[in-house]
Structure formats: structure tokens, C-alpha cells
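Page 37, top half.
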Amino acid sequence: MTPTSDPATATSLPIGSDADLAWVRHRVRQFAAEIGFGLVQQTKLVTAASELARNTLVHGGGGQAKITPLINGSTSGLQLSFIDTGPGIRDVELALTDGYTTGGGLGLGLSGAKRLVDEFTIDTQPGEGTSVTLVAWATGVPGARPGSR
């Protein structure tokens, strides 16, 4: 079954300042909680969103975040897109390498965000901007570990 989304439920948020980054994190957590993501899943998704929103601001010169609820049968999820019209990424493979940085950080932003979600795509052209889209699916409350009571 193909996931479905309702464009009317999508939310776009501007990314132009540090205050906007806090608002994006807040709204992502809010959507994730409403959809049924567990606390650990919420934290992973907010962490990925925070990294990508900061990249949008710092490297892309600002842009927008788009939050879209998804339904796939009985499973709910979120699609997050971070879009800018900045300089783009010259070498996506290199940018996804752990430890690679252009901003003096740890170099775990893109690669770390990718590991935290179910689906991750980058669409970029040098001089034309970047769009990073991720999808995470709510898996519900984890079951008991075998042998635990």
C-alpha cells in the first residue's frame, strides 16, 4: 500500500533564525506525539529535524520546514522536508560521511539524521539549493523483551 498524505494537513514553517529552529523542534515533537510516536521515537525525530533545520539556516541561508502527516494502512508517520535556495551540496556522498564538516562541527549532522529515520533523501544542485526529506513511521509501544517480566 502506498502511503497517503493530505496536503491540507501539511504545515510549513519558516527557518530564518535560531528562534525558528526552536519552533520547528517544538512543532515536530507536537506532531509526533499526536500521531502516536513513543518518547524514544519522538526524540530521534526531533534530533534529526533539529540537525536539518540548523543546516537549512547555517548552510542554506534559511528556508522552510514542511511537516506532513502520513498514513500507510493502520500505520501513521511523518514526512519532514527542509528546503533552502542556498549554494547546494557539491558532493552528497562526502557530506554524508561521518566526520565531514564544512562548519566546524562534529560532522554528524546529515549522516546522523539519516540513521535516526526510516527514509532519507537529498535533492540538491550546486547553486540551486537543497531539499532534504525524511520519513519516520510510528511503531507503537515497544513490546517486552524476551525473558523480562
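Page 37, bottom half:
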Amino acid sequence: MPDTTSSEPPNTALDGRLSYAIFQLARAHRGHAAAMLRALNLHPGQELLLMQLFDRDGQTQAELLERVGLDHSTVSKSLRRMQEAGLLTREPAAHDRRVMVVSLTDTGRALQEPIADMWRTLERISVRDLTPDQIETFTECARIIEKSVRDHSRQAPDA
């Protein structure tokens, strides 16, 4: 199916060309990543939680929330689905029964290399027409933009 998405923003977004380009990029990238995740029987975002657990298994639900930067309800729903799929367990912490500790099962742990392969493939697809310098510049710019947006979001609503 040919791509009929225009790279030119609609007239209303002409004064927001960068923001429109970011939106289009994020949509395309997320869509491709979602298709790759479906092949692993995962929903978008679940791989982010798993990657945090691959790095440090046995984190609390609150720690995971902070590390992935998603809202509480999204993380809770994802963890519940992942527990039902046998990828992880959630158990009360010994020091405080209200705190839930999230741990990988063998099934969840077995997804580490397939997820790493998926990210390598997605990276290869994403950068195939870029030079190493362009990749570095884009990555730096993306981090600066993300920080700017996050900082603004933390300001008072009337800012």
C-alpha cells in the first residue's frame, strides 16, 4: 500500500512545522514499532517496562512508573496484562505490604533478546539514510526538545 501521507503540514500548522514533523515522525515510528511488538505478543509500552526490569529486576511499581514516565493507570493496566500473560509477577514488599514489587518470570526474561533485536532492527530502519553525524545531531536535538517540553509542562498552567 503506497504512503499517501503528505510531509507538508496543513495551513493551520505552518507556524508549527517542527512540531508537525515531530508528530508525523512519532506516529510513523510508533506504528512500525507497534507492528514489531505485536509479533512478540506485546502491546506498545510493555517493552519499556520489560527493559527496565531486564536492567534491574524486582523494582517496585512506583520505581517503574518513575523510570518509564508513563501515568499510573497506564502502567497498572500494562502490568496487569503482563502478569496475566505470565511475563511478570507482582507481590507485596516484605517491608511494606502496600508496596508492590514487580519481578520477571522466566517467560518474561526470555523476551530480552527478542526485544533487543527488535530495537536494533527499528534503529537500523530509522537511520538507514542518515550519516553518523546526522544521527548524533538529531539525537541531541530530540533530547533538547523533549527537555523543553517537559520543563514547560511542569510550569504553572497559565505559563
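Margin note: The longest strand covers residues 88-92.
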